[in-house]
Amino acid sequence: MWALSGARLADGSAADVVVDGERIARIGPGAAAGVPEVLDCSGRLVLPAFIDGHVHLDKVLIRDELGEHDGTLRGAIEAIHERKRRYSFEDVRDRARAVIEESVRQGTTRLRSHVDVDTIGKLVPLEGVLAAASDCADIADVQTIAFPQEGLLRDPGAYELMEAALELGAHVVGGMPHWEADEAAQREHVRLCFDLAQRFDRDIDMHVDETDDGGVRTLEMVADEALARGYTGRVTAGHVCSLAAAGEEYSARVIDKCARAAISVAANPVTNLVLQGRGDRGLIRRGTTRIAELRAAGVNIMFGQDCVKDGFYPFGRGSMLEVALISAHAAHLTTRDDIAYALRAITDAPALAMRLSDYGLAAGMRADLMVMPAASWEEVLRLQLPPESVWFKGRLVAESSVTSVLYH
Ligand SMILES: [Zn+2]
């Protein structure tokens, strides 16, 4: 048993945190009394470790090997094809592992990764990411989502590969209905994903409407299907960009359906800020979904890293602090409440979407936590300070320090 004493929590209160094995034993003022091994935090902030609920580990770090393209989603998907054909098990494993390790240094100990499942890469991306997850099982938990990046109907054979991926160990059913050729095919894509999820008893996490075209409305198909099948609280919709371009009437209706189906939304402003609005001149659309309206309706919203130096996005370093800061800019999050909301979007919100029952700073929860080098979340977010110490299941897994000297 060991403890952190004199810690500051995100709500500003002071507390000690006592850890017993893999769990938090108790938390509160004076809780460390009598514990033999105590680390004094001297008023520094203690947070639960971050969660990256939407990342693509199979594609990370391939940017330098791709040809240049027009910067759009379609351009990126096509630019990756050639590289995807050359994926090897070791190549995917090494790249995914590097980003998982960097994420842990930056305070993220749980990740949920989409992994392409299609007739180009077949199951190689999934095998590589599962191996990286296994390599890193001592420092992080990595879930995988079987993601039919090239569509289900427009990529014959992908459905059978999705079945094989779930049998191989993918945790969640992915999807990308708006990528299909027409509305009927989109509806069929959604139906097939729900069929798979029900058959394998898995949650669903789809890429939904990642386009500026307000006429693309597969979010409503997903919400209708979830409501019709009673699949409430088990579905996440990622990106949802076209909702921002759609009219008020449709938006209000579909947001209400999302709330009723307890659909979580993974807004990924970091990538969509550079990917969307490419054809606009003058006032350029931001590509970020309707975060304010979804939030007001009580829809659970998380922020994800999405991409790290791949065909879609040249930046990213597995830092959810950076993701929170960029997302706060995209979503106009500047009040105290808003800034607290940005923390929620990289902690409790992905935990809820992933239905984690052992997450958070509370007695009985898993001891995935960190000490930050400042007294408040506002300061940590503003100054982008990496965690001093990160624990995974009660074990110290990363330490960082930043030094700088000014000669005045
Ligand atoms: Zn994505």
Task: Report on this structure.
The chain is an alpha/beta fold and 408 residues long. Helix content is 36%, strand content 20%. The chain contains 14 helices and 16 strands. It has helices at residues 73-85, 89-105, 124-135, 158-168, 183-200, 218-229, 242-245, 248-260, 269-275, 291-296, 320-330, 336-344, 348-353, 377-383, and strands at 2-8, 14-20, 23-28, 37-40, 46-48, 50-55, 108-116, 141-147, 172-173, 204-208, 235-239, 264-267, 301-303, 369-371, 389-392, 395-399. The strands form four sheets. It has a four-stranded mixed β-sheet, with no helix packed on it. Strand 15 (389-392) and strand 16 (395-399) form a beta hairpin. Helix 2 crosses helix 3. The radius of gyration is 21 Å and the shape is globular. The mean pLDDT is 97. The protein binds zinc ion (ZN). Residues 54, 56, 114, 207, 238, 306 line the site of zinc ion (ZN).
Overall mean pLDDT score? 97
- Give the terminus-to-terminus CA distance: 45 Å
Number of discrete helical segments: 14
**In which range does the helix fraction lie?**
25-40%
Strand content: 15-25%
Q: Which value, in Å, is the CA radius of gyration? A: 21 Å
* Strand arrangement in the largest pleated sheet: 3-2-1-4
What is the total tally of β strands? 16
Written as H for each helix and E for each strand, in order along the chain, the element string is EEEEEEHHEHEHEHEHEHHEHHEHHHEHEE
Residue windows where pLDDT falls under 50 for at least 5 positions: none
Q: Tell me about the largest β-sheet.
A: 4 strands, mixed
Q: Which word captures the global form? A: globular
Category from helices, strands and their pairing:
alpha/beta
* Bound ligand species: zinc ion
